[in-house]
Amino acid sequence: MSDRGLTLSTDKMRASGVDPVAVDVFAHYYRQAESGATGIIAEDSIEPLLDPPRLDEVEVCEADQVAALAQTVVIKLNGGLGTSMGLDQAKSLLPVRDGKNFLDLIVAQVMHARQAYGVRLPLLFMNSFRTRSDTLAQLARYPELAVDGLPLDFLQSAEPKIRLDDLTPVEWPADPALEWCPPGHGDLYPALWGSGVLDALLDAGFRYVTVANGDNLGAAPNPRLAGWFASTGAPYAAEVCLRTVNDRKGGHLAVRKADGQLILRDTAQTAPEEMHWFTDEHRHPYFHANNLWLDLVQLRQTLTERGGVLGLPLIRNEKTVDPTDPASPKVIQLECAMGAAIEVFRGARAIAVGRDRFLPVKTTNELLLLRSDVFELGQDAQLRAVVEIPGVDLDGKYYKLVDDFDARVQVVPSLRRATALTVRGDWVFDVRSQVVGEVSLADEGGTRHYRSEPDA
């Protein structure tokens, strides 16, 4: 049964023109799923990461910082549609601040760094087949962005969703596009190699890459980080942040007891009975920010040795073929995490960075914060918190989808004096207002309007 499923899946990929390297990677994970692999990492097989170097204590002279940044490329992961927030285009096109979306602010950050440090600093996006056209149309507004003939993007692969019951590629005539999915951001490595972009970057004189999610505006170009990474000679480095009680779901780095290697463990790789260890911010004090640094020379060498298949741990993601229809066939998406590559590279490093380098927008809770006066937008296009960031918890029934959120948060309230805002029910913010201290709005039935006059 499974041999047939693998053959049908790989034939489907080849017929659609999927890169041969991506087909080999899919086959690798298919065999793992077929054998019942879960990717679970047991707590007793690891030690916590306790004392990584801190960026604010790193000493790198200014000349070495700039020299490293001059050899650096910025890559943003841009394959997501933001469907959990009700979006149907690239999530990076969502307006964030002052009429600018993620893409606008990312471009502005890069252009500012180019001018400030006199470096080329190419910017590339790893798009999916669902985000490419919208993204490139937006980037056409910036004709000065391309560097040295390098492309502005490269394409993440696509793979078939496979049926949970018999591991054959699912068929969904109602919307054949839903038969496909991206293979997780771990596809970064074979996509760089198979597309020829890796060689093009090296041929153009670049040595280092910094990679981050497109919805994390905190991961701006940073010469000090670039200088530190170059000085280590490491093939790979991951940025980590101190966890708080609000970071219990994020993946974390750990040290594998068997060989002392740094590894990444995510929620999907944790047994249910050990989730209390995973979520313990005292036992595992650092979470993985998904901001990475790569040495392109060592990356190419490793990919060449392995034929493009790094063999990262499997993430078995069970869903329905149509995410909006729970009655549609159950499928498995075979994925892997970009950050899991840390276990492939001997000498990989971790560095603790400030929370300012981790500002993702996963829900409208974070979107409200970034649009509020908690943050100020600098000339370098970076958002900086000017007060301690308050907790925000909006009622998912009314605020989960961006259209619903925008309809209810017509005027963003001042949050500078807030410690927490919890909203239950249908509350509308449509006049200038402020939140002071800890405010909890109860569901009182019907639509309510928030009124709290700001200070003059």
Description:
This protein is of the alpha/beta class and 456 residues long. It folds into two domains: 2-357, Spore Coat Polysaccharide Biosynthesis Protein SpsA, Chain A (Alpha-Beta Complex); 364-449, Hexapeptide repeat proteins (UDP N-Acetylglucosamine Acyltransferase, domain 1). It is built from 13 helices and 24 strands. The strands form eight sheets. A seven-stranded mixed beta sheet has the order 6-5-2-10-14-11-17, sandwiched between helices. It has a three-stranded antiparallel beta sheet with strand order 1-12-13, with no helix packed on it. The longest helix has 16 residues, at 102-117. The radius of gyration is 22 Å and the shape is globular.
What features would you highlight for this structure?
alpha/beta; seven-stranded mixed beta sheet; 456 residues; three-stranded antiparallel beta sheet; UDP N-Acetylglucosamine Acyltransferase, domain 1; 2 domains; Spore Coat Polysaccharide Biosynthesis Protein SpsA, Chain A; 13 helices
Draw up the topology in text.
Layout: H1 2-15, H2 20-34, E1 46-48, H3 62-69, E2 72-78, E3 95-97, E4 100-101, H4 102-117, E5 123-127, H5 132-139, E6 153-155, E7 159-160, E8 162-163, E9 180-181, H6 188-194, H7 197-203, E10 208-213, H8 223-232, E11 236-242, E12 252-256, E13 262-265, H9 275-278, E14 286-295, H10 296-305, E15 315-320, E16 330-335, E17 349-352, H11 364-371, E18 375-377, E19 383-385, E20 391-394, H12 396-399, H13 402-408, E21 414-423, E22 426-428, E23 434-441, E24 447-449
Parallel strand pairs: 2-5, 2-10, 5-6, 11-17, 20-21, 21-23, 22-24
Antiparallel strand pairs: 1-12, 3-4, 7-9, 8-16, 10-14, 11-14, 12-13, 15-16, 18-19
